[in-house]
UniProtKB/TrEMBL annotation:
Record SUPFAM superfamilies: CYTH-like phosphatases
The name this protein goes by in its record: Polyphosphate polymerase domain-containing protein
VTC domain sequence ranges: 34-238
The organism of origin for this protein: Streptomonospora nanhaiensis
Domain of life, per lineage: Bacteria
A Pfam family that the UniProt record links to this protein: VTC
Amino acid sequence: MSTDTSAPALSEALAALRPMTLAEINSRAALVTRTCRKYLVPVTFADSLFAGAEERFGVLTIGGQQVFRYSSTYLDTPDLRTFHDHRRGRRVRFKARVRTYVDTGTRMFEVKLKGARGVTDKTRIEYEGPTDRLTPLTRRFLDDTLLGYGMEPPDVLTASAVTDYRRATVVSFSGEERVTVDTDLVGYRNGWSVGMRPDMVLLEVKTRGGLTSTERRLHQHGFREVGFSKYGATVSVLEPRLRGNRWHRAMASCLDHQTPTTVPQARAGVVLSV
């Protein structure tokens, strides 16, 4: 897969940027500890955002591909502690997931931490185990990470939702920012799925500083940061007894109606009821 067929215009804009290896991107803008701001924009605008930016940006390219498939399985407590902490805007919180890079088969166990100043810190380990439960390895990693951050680890975590999407990664040569471009988002839970409208793109601008040049352009065209979480939106839409007020406006602007899922049992089985 060399392009994302749901967004051909966007792929043309990305194709014009200089290819960058993962090693080069990490050397310029690893941004593991960062501020992350999200924007929902029409795919046609995302195309213009990167058009003519060849002197300022490169795009992650591996084996000729620029758009890659991701699958994330989120792990939460039986009462959905991490979902509710995020929905309520708790200043100190965490999120745990197993992320699979579908095109390469690489799998990582990740813990994302949000601190009191709004900075996100992501730590992770390469992982070859199941996606739907903690193993002794991931249990120790989670406990050590949370305790080191001053948080009490939960007793139990189980799979609560799955999100699939396609992502391109654009990085400024200055290292100021890393912009991920997500399309074809589909969330799964309890035998149901919900997808992002094909004409919409989710941009995530990751930086260590204030507004970036990309964000200033977004603001000039009337686009502002949105409150949106792939995991939060999936659970909010597909779990009728929960509310997702924090993401309601963004969800209404970009998500289609939920439908029964046709995900194979091996995948559907990790989307558990609570």
